[in-house]
Amino acid sequence: MQELNKLFTGIVMVLIIIVWLLIVGLLTTKALLLILSQVVLAVFLFGNTAKNVFEAIIFLFVTHPFDVGDRCVIDGVQMVVEEMHILTTTFLRYDNEKIFYPNSVLATKPISNFYRSTVDMRDAVEFAIDVFTPIEKISYLKSTIKNYLESKPRHWSPTHSVVVKHIKDEKMIMGLYITHIIIFENYEEKINRRSELVLELKRIFEEAAIRIYHVLPQEVQVSYVVSATSTVPLPEK
């Protein structure tokens, strides 16, 4: 904001000086035309820069998709907003690497803001079991998962689904879709809870003697873009 104030203050001061010189007669029409011709030349030479500055200002103060400290996803990378300037924004990636984006470039990208999303976070775990697994064991798997989620009401919503997605090479690909009782901003806590869930699935598979091929946590795909609320779709395979 201070940089923007300085920019507008400079423009206003230049205009005031020109008007004052015209009023007192120190600036002739010929001299004014010369100045205007130089301004036109400058606009021609630096027009693209001026366009970028204008787009950056609109993005920063009108669109305003994030604030310092917000956790965002840009180009599939999750980052925290560290600094905001007129022309650039600095992000801090999960490995503490700083990434600088021109605001004019950010204005063209979809931005997911975890902090501004008030809905609970959906998640998914995909796994493959032997296609010859008895129906009774699959029913046991579903009921045990249900009991586990209901036993942790502060971590998980009881609403969930366990579905068969497809069968391939004697493998039955299944997906567990759950909802965290947590806001998007608490990403580290979300990772810990999902890790506990995967370990619980492993325990259930061993207890029920269900042969599995892999258990792979799926990344959450966020559709929230510069909005106060968001609906996050389940991952599509």
CATH topology of the largest domain: SH3 type barrels
Number of strands: 9
The largest sheet is: 5 strands, antiparallel
- Quaternary structure classification: single chain
Cα-atom radius of gyration:
28 Å
- Read across the widest sheet, the strand sequence of neighbours is 4-3-2-1-5
Distance between the termini: 44 Å
- What count of helical segments does DSSP give? 5
Question: Could you say what the CATH architecture of the largest domain is?
Answer: Roll
Secondary structure class reads alpha+beta
CATH class of the largest domain: Mainly Beta
Low-confidence stretches: 219-237
**What is the helix content?**
40-55%
Transmembrane segments: 7-26, 32-50
Family: Belongs to the MscS (TC 1.A.23) family.
Subcellular location: Membrane
Membrane topology: Multi-pass membrane protein
Structural commentary:
- The chain is α+β, with helices and mostly antiparallel strands.
- The protein has 2 domains: 1-113, SH3 type barrels (Roll), CATH 2.30.30; 122-218, Alpha-Beta Plaits.
- It is 42% helix and 24% strand.
- Helix 4 (135-150) packs antiparallel against helix 5 (187-208).
- The two termini are 44 Å apart.
- 16% of the residues are buried.
- This is Mechanosensitive ion channel MscS domain-containing protein.
- It is found in: Membrane.
